[in-house]
Amino acid sequence: MREKLIKSPLKRAFVLFSIISLLTYLLSPIIIVSDAFLVKTTFVSALCKVKSSKQNIEEEGSQSPALTPLLQTQIREAIALSTKSSRDINAAYQAANTLWPSILYKEDKKTTTLGPKIELLCRALYATTLTQIGRDKDAVDVYNGSILLAESQLLDVNRNGDIDSGKTSELKKTLGDVRMGCGRSLQRLMRYREASKQFKKCADENKQNQIGIDALCSSALCLLRLNNSYSAYSLLKESCQILSSKDEEILEGIDGNVAGMLGILKVVLGVTDGPEGIALLKYASEESKKKGSISILYQWLYAVSFVDVSSEKNINLKQNNSRMISAFVERTRNLDDYDFFLQLAAVNQSPFDEPALVHLDDKVLLNQLLSSNLTQTETQRHGKNLCWPKGFILPQEKENLLEHIKKEGHYKKWILKERAGYGSHGNSIIDVRKLIETPFLERYTTQEPILCQQLIDPPLLINGKKFSLRLFVLYFSRSETSTLDSLPVYISSEGLIKIASAQYNNTSKSSNEIHMTNSGCYREGEESMTQFDFNYLRKEIGKDNFLQVWDSIKSSVACVMKRYKSSLLLTKTSFGNDKISEVRNDVLSSLPKIMGFDYIIDTSFKPWLMEVNRFPGLEPRGKCDKIVKQTVLRDAWGIAAEIYSVEHKDICSESESCSCCFEEL
After folding, report:
1. What is the SS3 string spanning 348-380?
2. For the chain, is the Cβ count within 10 Å smaller at the N or the C terminus?
3. 355-384+462-664, which class in CATH?
């Protein structure tokens, strides 16, 4: 889903920071009802078109002796680099690591006095640029400082009795934008509880406007990620005073995303107060047809929501919804409609996917899931291992790591992976000699757990460069009556080969350029990275070698998902220390969940699993990328409709089967 650009010119003197604040809200990957991982809508270019930007800096400079002509020049340069950072990672690194710190902080790390307006502007852009290079932890600190600064300015305005409502509203909007940026960084870090609180504050401070509505939905989403379905429902209900009545006519005017989230929660939780869940879903479905900002997720959920309605008087509604399902799937078969393509991709970020999937997405939890030895059944069915490199969680397993290195020290390089890293961000390569140094290991004694894993070295190369494989795996979450064998998993024959930017043996290049192949390594002038489809790999390594790799990958994926499902179902009510789904039913289990499995191949043509991405970017980044992702999205929804048709033949007789890139494991 793409954000709409502001059409009317901004005239106020505070326009520069208003634009930058909006950029912190738009630059981050956002979807109104999704995790902040999917769509990167870049509004930075608008910054260069704002004629008052230069004038605003110069006016502020005349009022603040600290804002010298040299400092003004540095700020403009930093703004230009931040603008460029959305398409060039080098610009992002230069702005975030060098320019913004030199502008904002003196050598003693104390904040430079820039004047309130310019300081807020710089902090906001600095935080945004930090998120571009995956430094969300640092961005949270900068955002928090900006929040304190904005709150202080609001207090000063009120204390001085300033009744300029325009100035107050601008400051409130600025505070809201910064809170949203902070919340999204926390969300990307999987710190969902903190993110929910930040979004809730933003919603409370911005009632009755769009940013408040977006914050409300984001807060509820984070609660759902934590599996707090009832808390999410209470939050949404309390924020919608009109929902105390069963009169469906009063729904007019309520935000479609709020209505949709409330509706599906009422259906799933069996809540009966206020308007029926079906009525809310219907309203959200209709709103999504009229407004691009409302998720098309609710069209599908409304269409399948009559499955448990057995009353004879609803048979016509069931048949009508069957036609809606067919029409929805038919539309997915022609994804030339780019807006619909993006909206469909956004559904994969659904607030209602299985909360326990965090155990695949979180690298520390994934290692815990996969590090134990294979059972005899797993060995017989899926091969000798999971294709998961040996790893240790620091600081808990520091002694085990040192013992392993002492015993099997032939691994020269290791990779450190933050639990919530994405797009190669949060990963760093380290030599074993540095790894065993006491000062280095002591660095991780108090920090959040991090995965230290053997680096596959040497890897198989293509034209002298390292590459990785992105596999798409389709999964349907459990319903209340699910068994282990009734949770199908599919693997797509369509995928992507992502190639690093530098030659593997080029010692003059950085480790990131040599080893990292993900979308976090894009540069200006490139589509995002060099990538191809699987046909390219088949030609490069030969058909027989490709089949060997593919068979091993299928075995690995099957084994990983078997472990996940076994742990999920056998524990019934818990998975690790977290409660699993409080409520699941056929409505939510009808949603296709697409995950990204990333593999590296070694020189013996053995694949090794690097990570599982719960929210793989499904928006296109190039021609090849677009074709693959369109096929994956189309066929995933085709399978969803086919499964629904088999289970409910009485109302889905119009569903048709078609050729598909997915194979059931």
Report:
1. CCCCCCCHHHHHHHCHHHHHHHHCCCCCHHHHH
2. C
3. alpha beta
